[in-house]
TrEMBL record:
Record's keyword annotation contains Cytoplasm: no
CDD domains: M20_Acy1-like
Cofactor, free-text remark: The Mn(2+) ion enhances activity.
NCBIfam families reported in the protein's UniProt record: amidohydrolases (TIGR01891)
Keywords on record: Hydrolase, Manganese, Metal-binding
Domain Peptidase M20 dimerisation: 190-278
GO molecular function, one term: N-acetyldiaminopimelate deacetylase activity
Positions annotated to bind Mn(2+): C103, H105, E138, H166, H361
Highest rank taxon of the organism: Bacteria
Gene3D superfamilies the record matches: 3.30.70.360, Zn peptidases
Membrane-crossing segments per the record: none
Protein's name according to its UniProt entry: Amidohydrolase
């Protein structure tokens, strides 16, 4: 197995790639320049099996090892950016107004390219490695991972196991975090339209005021967590949008409420959908109003499979030592659409330390380039651990 020093020589080149991608971010299924950049790099490494246009802008490239027959494992990196105005102040800040790489996907893509270059030159493994460059991780359904699975990449490329990695602010550079079982939360989104009776703000007694009802619903939803859920289980219900009248003197007919639910439990997803409806409807009808309700299930919870997580831990430890791998990392309630791949195949997801930087989805966030050789080394040690020749 390799130490991280093996990959220091790659760091300068991969840093250039990472910063180019950071300067040129693209949203969801519009990563055309990013996909072209990735494809050209893969071809320059001597990789002949490259398929593009998967889920619009996704790519899968296959490297055949020289160690004989064996399984195919998938390594996934996401490519899309976020609709955020950058405030990092870095020389390589986004050149695209209102779009930035605020979640490290530029680093994820660059690290997988760095690993691809090394693996294509050494091929010191049996079987094959499928490099999955995924679009549209940051969107609602259908996300890029969902579409790639639906389009059959796991079957078409014979992928037996899948692995993902994510930059993690707050975890020191050179360290990894992982755990067995549920590691990240599911994401569901809901919309509630309170249907009341509007009128003049001077005469609320002539209305069925949906603003007051909406306020009661918002407060009522919080009791689903504080009073209806086991405190040893995890459920987050956050109301994030509220839309009412646009004038000071108008009570509207309708008020729109929207929010998100996060949990590590599939049964709590069912609970949230049923009880948000029941609570909102009960409150509204108690005031003589009614509601329209929509609940959309997005990403499931990210579940790390036992065997594959053991392999991931082994690969990370071989790179940085046991003391730098937290194998009981606290789960994050944030969602990750790689979960769709983990539902379809066994695999594991790991956090890569990004140091004391701004948090993901923050305008000041930037991927720490000192983390690049650690991510590259992890991928290569993982391949050579699982596909030992």
């Amino acid at each position: 197995m390799h130490s991280v020093e093996t990959f220091r020589d790659l760091q300068r080149e991969v840093t250039e790639w990472r910063r180019y991608l950071h300067e040129n971010p693209e949203l969801d299924y519009r990563e055309h320049n990013t996909a072209r950049f990735v494809t050209e790099k893969l071809a320059s490494f001597g990789i002949n099996h490259i398929e593009t246009g998967i889920a619009e802008t996704g790519i899968v490239a296959v490297i055949q090892g020289e160690g004989g027959d064996g399984p195919t494992i998938g390594l996934r990196a996401d490519m899309d950016a976020l609709p955020i105005v950058e405030a990092s102040g870095k020389p390589w800040s986004s050149k695209s107004p209102g779009v930035m790489h605020a979640c490290g996907h530029d680093g994820h893509t660059a690290m997988l390219l760095g690993a691809a270059k090394h693996l294509a030159s050494t091929r010191n493994f049996k079987g094959s490695v499928a490099l999955i460059f995924q679009p549209a991780e940051e969107v609602e359904l259908p996300t890029g991972a969902f579409r790639m699975v639906q389009e059959g990449i796991l079957d078409r490329f014979g992928i037996a196991q899948v692995f993902g990695m994510h930059s993690w602010p707050g975890l020191d550079v050179g360290k990894f975090g992982i755990r067995h079982g549920y590691f990240m939360g599911s994401q569901d989104d809901f919309d509630i339209v309170v249907k009341g009776k509007g009128g003049h703000a001077a005469h609320p007694y002539r209305t069925i005021d949906p603003v007051v009802i909406a306020a009661q619903i918002i407060l009522g939803l919080q009791t689903l967590v504080s009073r209806r859920t086991d405190p040893l289980e995890t459920l987050v219900i956050s109301v994030t949008k509220l839309s009412a009248a646009q004038a000071y003197n108008v009570i509207p007919d309708d008020v729109e409420i929207a929010g998100t639910c996060r949990t590590l439990s599939s049964s709590l997803r069912d609970f949230a959908e049923q009880e948000i409806l029941a609570s909102a409807q009960g409150i509204a009808r108690g005031f003589g109003a009614d509601i329209e309700f929509r609940y959309r299930r997005s990403a499931p919870a990210t579940f790390n499979h036992t065997k594959e997580t053991d392999l991931a831990i082994q690969a990370a430890r071989s790179l940085v030592g046991s003391e730098s791998v937290d194998v009981k990392m606290r789960p994050s309630i944030g969602a990750e659409d790689f979960a769709f791949m983990l539902e379809a195949r066994p695999g594991s997801y790991i956090f890569l330390g990004n140091g004391p930087t701004a948090q993901c989805h923050n305008p000041a966030y930037d991927f720490d380039d000192e983390a690049l050789p650690y991510g590259i080394g992890y991928w290569i040690n993982l391949v050579e651990t699982i596909l030992a020749a």
